[in-house]
Design goal:
alpha/beta; Outer Surface Protein A, domain 3; 12 strands; about 375 residues; disordered C terminus; Rossmann fold; ubiquitin-like modifier activating enzyme activity; elongated
């Protein structure tokens, strides 16, 4: 054998099988990946069923004899599949103790163009700690989507009670009406992804904070996350559209405040909530947001502890078509996973406007010279 034997060879799940002739089997439909297999007889296709990751290559080749294949024929078939990337070692596809619900996710990652193995990506997601904050109807769906994609620790820090207008396109149910959003979303997470941890994240330990909605002054949010060096992705519903971004990693600009300042330059009357220029100074202003969270709230960005409605937590109906909402949920989830997986999101330094499924408008922004985020690396880190 000219190559190293594969430990527990596994055929990628979900490959269509199409018989072209009684002895020719097409495996896969995507032209760059599909292969034609010449088999000595139709029952030789049974070898494919042995490649399920439960046996060594040596054992699989030995058992191929039961399907009428000689050892050299079975080895040639396995070599062809391995060269085409359709057979991989089991440990590179599935991490140990992976929930069965993630089999499809692992297979999709294997089909993607990334060079990172699915198992490594899923291990990275399993160790990630993501906090979803805000009080918009986007939040429960984004939280559940991330958990079902393999995020291991997802804390929903959502304010206010669940209302009827939030249910379309949401994982929440009529039984959740009137209950705190955080609790209802945590219940939805347990239903969809029972192994996901939902408790508060220790301060400073979040892999990513996703703030959904516009219930914070922009500059205050920018200051809060700048102090803690924690990555932030924002999204909000605005007049039937969903605005996503920018995603601001630690020590990277432009930030939320940069966008506000750019808009202020274009429109002098644009509202500017700028605590950086307040007499009390940026750190004191920023601490109003940082210290407003309850002591046990973890990586809270809302200023109101989980499950607490708060005096202004009732959200008016958000005008957004269900199809647009679901398209935005998919995009936000994809951007968050791209970042957690160690790749470059489209919203890095950009804001994407989703007006309907398939219709996207991307705006890029540069760091604003008046925003202190350009000097963020010199800011003291908050504990």
């Amino acid at each position: 054998m000219s190559r190293t034997p594969l430990p527990r060879p596994t055929l990628l799940p979900g490959l269509p099988r199409i018989w072209r002739t009684p002895h020719t089997l097409q495996l896969g439909l995507d032209p760059p990946r599909a292969v034609l297999l010449d088999l000595p007889e139709p029952r030789a296709a049974g070898l494919l069923d042995l490649l399920d990751g439960s046996r060594s290559e040596r054992l699989a080749l030995a058992e191929a004899a039961t399907f009428g294949m000689r050892p050299d024929e079975a080895r040639t078939l396995l070599d062809t599949l391995h060269t085409a990337g359709l057979v991989v070692p089991a440990q590179s596809l599935f991490p140990p103790a992976m929930p069965e619900r993630l089999t499809g996710e692992a297979a999709a990652l294997a089909y993607s163009a990334t060079t990172t193995s699915p198992a490594r990506t899923l291990r990275r997601r399993a160790s990630a700690r993501v906090v979803v904050t805000g009080r918009t109807r986007l939040a429960p769906a984004v939280a559940v989507a991330l958990a079902t994609a393999g995020i291991g620790h997802l804390h929903p820090d959502l304010t206010g009670p669940v209302e009827a207008h939030e249910l379309p396109g949401s994982p929440l149910t009529p039984a959740d009406l009137g209950h705190p959003r955080s609790q209802a979303t945590a219940s939805a997470l347990r239903r969809a992804a029972p192994t996901t941890e939902t408790r508060p994240v220790r301060r400073g330990a979040a892999s990513l904070v996703i703030h959904l909605g516009e219930d914070h002054p922009t500059a205050l949010s920018a200051i809060s996350h700048a102090h803690r060096r924690r990555p932030l992705l924002t999204a909000s519903i605005r007049e039937g559209k969903v605005l996503v971004g920018p995603l601001v990693p630690p020590s990277t600009s432009p930030c939320l405040n940069c966008i506000t300042l750019h808009r202020r330059d274009r429109e002098p009357t644009w509202p500017l909530d700028d605590p950086w220029s307040s007499p009390s100074g940026p750190f004191k202003a920023g601490s109003l947001l940082l210290e407003s969270a309850s002591p046990d709230a973890g990586e809270v960005g809302s200023g109101i502890g989980p499950g607490r409605a708060g005096p202004a937590a009732v959200v008016p109906p958000e005008p957004c078509a269900t199809a647009t909402l679901l398209a935005a949920v998919a995009y936000i989830t994809a951007e968050a996973l791209t970042f957690v997986d160690g790749n470059t999101p489209e919203t890095l330094g950009a804001e994407v406007e989703i007006s309907r499924p398939g219709t996207f408008r991307r705006r890029t922004w540069s760091p604003h010279p008046a925003c202190p985020c350009t000097r963020r690396s010199s800011l003291p880190r908050r504990p």
